[in-house]
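Worked example 2:
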Amino acid sequence: MRILLLTVSYPNDVAFYSDWVEAFSTHPKVLTEVANIAASDGKACLRRQIREADAIVALHATTSDWLLDLTEVAPILLDRKIPLGVFIGNEFNQPFPWLAEKIEVVKQIRTDIVFSQLLQETAEWLYAETGARVLSLPHALNHRRFRPGPDYLARRLDLVSRSYRYPVYLGDNQRNDVFTAASRLQGKSDWTIDVRLGARADASTWADLLRDSRATIATEAGTWFLERDDCTAREVERRMRLGGRAGFALPNWLRRGLRRLPSAQKDLLRRAGSGLAMTYAPLATPDARTAKAIAEIFATAPKPPVYGKCIAARNFDALGTKTLQLLTPGRYNDIMKPGEHYLEIAADASNLEEILESAQNPAIWTRITEAGYALGLSSTYAVRINELLSQLFAPSHHGIQNGIQCE
């Protein structure tokens, strides 16, 4: 089976982007050709590549934080006679870009099937108006990169994690609060803790950190305030503008160029921008008065009829390295169970010290990490791609089946 894999390739530290490309490229049932639609030659070759493929799959990088490359090749995609599946990245409401814009692009290119990180019922609700079929397809374990580390005693760190601060548009400070609580322990305990909010590690460095740590801390990804029309998040943006805190947006030509910079240079620009009177919009934070107004918005905002959070790639990374996870309460796509695959901490991390103490028990550590590793091996990217292939050629709403245009 010949799959044309669409991606947007640029320097970044999001490991699962390359994990999916690697998984398709090494899958025994698939002959994969990768098209980088961010490059001019990637766009130029697309018509020929589509003629030679049995199906097209657009990966998360084409939708996560930038839609322009995908919309630029929309006329070519509309001229296809084979199925098109699209992974949606960053399935929450924020203006970089808006979730409603992603839904509109899915409709515009007549997507046959949407691959979502969210629960099946949540994804069906979110993409109900696209005309596409929907498959819940969360991240998985890259068992080649995230291999088990040494035994409990041989690990140098007690707790490690990396993440970026959640933006104000989500109405959810849980991840920020949990990382802040863990950071406070760094200076007042005898544990060896390396937790940083505001930075990511590249895939190899992250894998090494996990293998060298007994435990890691995380939350679910996503939001409690998931909306198809971005209504609440747009009101938050309006309040940010009124308070002079919305930040500036870059023109597309400049943003396209900056995306090609190495991650280290991007981090330098972020740090430089944080000191400006008017900061870059994705980094903007409210002042105290604006933050209070935004809190009032979320206090009265209706929650959706579905569960808007999901398991994250970092959860599978830890399973593979046999690193014990300390996680806030959640469903985690009903894949991981508290007490069996991770230790549960309070939503505000108020009992973090107590749970971290439990994680130092070798018997508890071994029991949970062994069960987690077994779960990880049953949740590899190859398993996910098998699920994808079983659904990709099913009858679609657009009349495309098995590469043949139906009447």
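Residues 398-407 have pLDDT under 50 and may be disordered. Residues 152-225+306-377 form a domain with the Rossmann fold fold (CATH 3.40.50.2000).
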